[in-house]
Design goal:
- The chain contains seven helices and two strands.
- By secondary structure, the chain is mainly alpha-helical.
- The protein has one domain.
- The relative contact order is 0.10.
- It has a two-stranded antiparallel ribbon with strand order 1-2.
């Protein structure tokens, strides 16, 4: 008796992931001209990031493809927004470029290294893990850091077009941006910690493989 082969691409969390990509592309298209369409598409895409994780756990559909899709969508979405911010705020282009480079490079290195060392997920950790990583990958902490980082950049984007709603004469977008700014900076620092931890793990893999190669060469003599 044969069992039907599962179609990983049609798993519910992965369908949500495809929807996120579609919304992000629409958001990119309208970013220079319509902050309402672009803003809503971007915010919904980011919001779906939380839903796909719940769907994966609820339907027991966690996959390596889904994890990679989620990670790449996160990085590319934020990168697209930062490209636009570099255009809107050329004075701060270097900082946006630096943020993009650190975000993409450090997360890519960390995720790739997680595969090399055999972790079930780049979000998994043990008691011997770096203390910053242990704290960061606590569910509530991770959600808060990701949310404040996105809110900061989204507010900068919206402030280019409008002050938005105000309270006592102060723009809520500006208040939110000021509040979230330190956490966005902290998240960039944590990305660097990702690269540091991944580099140590990857170097340990290299040392182990080179030692095994030396022993094999010695045994053949």
């Amino acid at each position: 008796m044969t069992t039907e082969k599962e179609n990983i691409f049609l798993f519910y969390p992965n369908i949500i992931g495809f929807a996120r990509i579609f919304l992000a592309i629409i958001s990119f298209w309208y970013m220079p001209t319509s902050y309402i369409i672009s803003g809503w598409c971007y915010i919904i895409s980011v919001g779906l990031d939380a839903i796909d994780g719940h769907a994966a756990r609820h339907f027991n559909q966690s996959t390596k493809f889904g994890a990679m899709l989620d990670q790449l969508t996160d990085r590319c979405s934020t990168m697209g927004l930062l490209v636009t911010l570099s255009y809107f705020y050329p004075k701060y282009m270097f900082l946006f470029q630096l943020s993009m480079a650190i975000d993409v490079a450090c997360h890519w290195l960390y995720m790739q290294t997680s595969v090399f060392v055999g972790k079930s997920s780049h979000k998994s950790f043990d008691v011997n893990e770096n203390v910053v990583m242990r704290i960061y990958y606590q569910k509530d902490v991770l959600t808060f850091m990701c949310a404040t980082n996105e809110i900061f950049y989204c507010c900068l984007y919206l402030l280019y077009f409008t002050t938005g709603p105000t309270i006592l004469g102060f723009s809520l977008f500006k208040i939110a941006a000021i509040f979230c700014c330190p956490f966005a900076v902290l998240k960039t620092f944590i990305s660097c910690v990702h690269a540091y931890v991944a580099s140590l793990d990857l170097a340990a893999v290299d040392i182990k493989e080179r030692e095994a190669a030396r022993l094999k060469k010695t045994d053949t003599k």
